[in-house]
Write a structure and sequence with these properties.
Pfam family, one: LysR_substrate
Strand order of the largest sheet: 2-1-3-11-4
Distance between the termini: 13 Å
Shape: elongated
Keywords: Transcription, Transcription regulation
Family: Belongs to the LysR transcriptional regulatory family.
GO molecular function, one term: transcription cis-regulatory region binding
Strand content: 25-35%
CATH topology of the largest domain: D-Maltodextrin-Binding Protein, domain 2
Order of helices and strands: HEHEHEEEHEEHEHEEE
Largest sheet: 5 strands, mixed
Organism: Klebsiella pneumoniae
CATH superfamily of the largest domain: Periplasmic binding protein-like II
Structural class: alpha/beta
Length: 194
């Protein structure tokens, strides 16, 4: 068990901070597996959610024991361990022109003429997505900035803009169209630091 390897089994309460999308499946599965271990039956958990930058600040301040978040560059005091990879996709409203033109996948250059709902600087994905656009030599028009995925999906669903975001299961609850990105880009990786 990954928590046991990091000494967390000696604590009575483990304080875990995580980005919003990890609360859907990753954190519950981690807690379930840990809780089933007989030597950990007295352990309780407390949880904090937030953006990657906020969570790392809490971790460095000693307010949490573990942070599950996106990788943040230039953090020499933090040990990042990959936990999950998430495919990045283009998300549009169901009736958006891109949804009508492209059924399954799209080149990023085809999206550049439409305004984007973009992750704020608080998001760990922001530098990653900035880099994707820089590699393609593209500059997106930004309609607005948001901190987290569900706000992004909600705004996309009302056709306020399009977005590049992780393919999360919650997208199935929104009136959106999901397009794979034809360009070769690495997946987003969520990490933790024990």
């Amino acid at each position: 068990m990954i928590l046991q390897k990091n000494g967390a089994e000696n604590k009575e309460n483990i304080r875990i901070a995580f980005i919003y999308t990890m609360g859907e499946y990753v954190v519950p599965q981690l807690i379930n597996k840990y809780s089933l271990s007989p030597e950990c039956h007295n352990v309780t958990f407390s949880f904090t959610q937030g953006t990657s930058l906020t969570l790392l600040q809490e971790l460095k301040a000693g307010k949490v024991d573990l942070a599950i978040c996106s990788y943040i560059a230039d953090e020499p005091d933090i040990d990042f361990i990959p936990v999950i990879q998430q495919e990045l996709v283009v998300v549009t409203a169901k009736d958006h022109p891109l949804a009508r033109l492209y059924e399954h996948e799209v080149e990023l250059v085809e999206t550049i003429h439409y305004p984007y709902i973009y992750f704020s600087e608080n998001s760990g994905l922001r530098p990653f997505i900035d880099n994707v656009f820089m590699q393609q030599k593209l500059v997106p028009e930004i309609a607005c900035y948001v901190d987290e995925d569900t706000a992004m999906a909600g705004l996309v669903s009302i056709d306020y803009g399009i977005a590049i975001m992780p393919r999360i299961t919650a997208l199935s609850y929104y009136n959106v169209h999901i397009l794979k990105i034809k360009n070769t880009i690495p997946p987003a990786i969520s990490i933790w630091r024990p």
